[in-house]
Design goal:
This protein is of the alpha+beta class. The chain has two domains: 2-173, no CATH class; 189-419, no CATH class. The chain contains 16 helices and six strands. A hairpin with a 2-residue loop joins strand 4 (292-298) and strand 5. The model has no long low-confidence stretch (mean pLDDT 91). The structure holds zinc ion.
Length: 419
């Protein structure tokens, strides 16, 4: 049909150029924001989904082919399903137009029905509504089945339910490690790096971005398991997860320090007079749990902020991480941080807050009150909306984390020397 010709005629040459841009981060962002779902959304909102299925399929195939060109490797069906999820569900946001077409048409119809009827001065009977509704329900969980009406037909609500169903379906097909990985990718703010514009602090090198995306999607990074080129003691898995926990080369310290420095800069912007690595907090001990110390944080007490990063895919966490969101970072915060330091720091008259990151970006729950207070202070001091401060913060911290992990993988390539 005409719509199909129009969509799929000019787009291939545009998308092909994205794959030769020699900057995968920029290519992907152009694809995500300017050259994928938004290119077809008008058609799927105005043409009944049953008439446009083949066009949508071709369009989706083209978008996926472009993504393959950007990361320069083929995709498994499992990776494709993850890529097509929204970033809130741990995907890459390249939504399938075929999956979402019934939702788009139904929501569009009901949002314009009243106005159209007022022009026509007669009720509109839409013969396509039943088939589109059946198609929509076939893409949702039974609990979300809906009779289309103007009250429940916001496209974003319907699309959220489709993503929820697709996410559930994908999870049911995965082994425990992939299930844990995808759940971890859906943690609040974990995916901020994916949508971040490549400003100076959020810019990835080509290799860093491709490795970060492959790790996110569970695409093998190495040909086969091998002895880790850095520690020479443990096996490097083909997905590179060992790089997150490998104890040598100082990578974990660099990652920790980079996360700490990001927080330090934001605390400085809030004029909280933060102090890095404050010594002598605990008498008769050389331990320095205060990665950042904030004097007079509240009620005359200083706050000791202690950062850490852990991998939710490692053996001891993977099963629980596949079932409970942010299990690993919260477990680590309790067992390794609170249990060890809290009572001793409180007895010195300070407050204690561990902030633990998972290697896919999840953040321990207790951190959020602190982070919200930080946004409030910066917003007030710099006269910036809190939403802008929050966006900047989450993107910055997420890019630092993902870039750091990509670098750890790069430095463990057995075949190459990066001198
Ligand atoms: Zn190692």
């Amino acid at each position: 049909m005409d719509a199909g010709k129009k969509i799929n005629k000019k787009l291939p040459s545009l998308l092909e150029k994205l794959t030769i841009l020699d900057n995968p981060q920029v290519s992907y962002l152009i694809l995500l924001f300017c050259a994928s779902f938004c290119k077809i959304v008008w058609y799927i909102r105005t043409v009944p989904s049953t008439f446009i299925t083949d066009t949508c399929q071709k369009f989706d195939d083209l978008v996926l082919k472009t993504f393959e060109g950007i990361i320069a490797c083929g995709l498994s069906s499992q990776s494709i399903k993850q890529i097509q999820l929204s970033t809130k569900f741990g995907g890459a946001g390249l939504r399938s137009s075929k999956d979402h077409a019934p939702a788009a048409y139904i929501s569009s119809f009901f949002s314009s029905k009243t106005l159209a009827q007022s022009f026509l001065r007669s009720p509109i009977i839409n013969p396509h509504l039943d088939s589109c509704s059946a198609s929509l329900n076939s893409k949702m969980l039974v609990e979300d089945f809906t009779e289309p009406s103007s009250e429940v037909s916001q496209q974003k609500d319907l699309s959220h339910k489709i993503d929820k169903s697709n996410s559930f379906q994908l999870s049911s097909e995965c082994n425990v490690m992939d299930k844990a990985r995808i759940l971890c990718c859906s943690a609040p703010h974990a995916s901020a790096w994916i949508r971040a514009l490549p400003t100076s602090s959020n810019k990835f090198s080509n290799l860093e971005w491709v490795l970060a995306m492959k790790r996110w999607l569970g695409i093998p990074i190495y040909n086969k398991e091998h002895m880790c080129a850095a520690c020479h003691k443990q096996i490097m898995d083909i997905y590179g997860h060992h790089a997150a926990v490998c104890p040598v080369s100082g990578d974990r310290i660099k990652r920790h320090n980079a996360l700490r420095d990001c927080f330090y800069d934001f605390c400085t912007n809030a004029a909280w007079a933060p102090v890095k690595e404050k010594p002598f907090l605990m008498p008769f001990s050389s331990e320095r749990p205060a990665d950042i110390f904030i004097p007079n944080f509240t009620a005359g007490k200083g706050l000791v902020v202690d950062f850490a990063c852990t991998c939710p895919i490692q053996q001891k966490y993977v099963r629980s991480s596949s079932q409970t969101l942010t299990f690993a970072c919260n477990k680590y915060a309790q067992e390794v941080k609170y249990d060890c330091f809290q009572s001793r720091i409180i007895s010195e008259g300070h407050l204690y807050l561990p902030i633990v990151f998972e290697s896919f970006g999840g953040i321990s729950g207790d951190a959020f009150d602190f982070i919200k207070k930080l946004f409030q202070s910066i917003s007030m001091r710099l006269s910036e909306p809190k939403s802008i401060v929050a966006k900047s913060f989450y993107e910055n911290i997420s890019c630092i984390l993902m870039r750091s992990l990509a670098r750890s993988m790069i430095s463990r390539f057995p075949e190459f020397s990066f001198v």
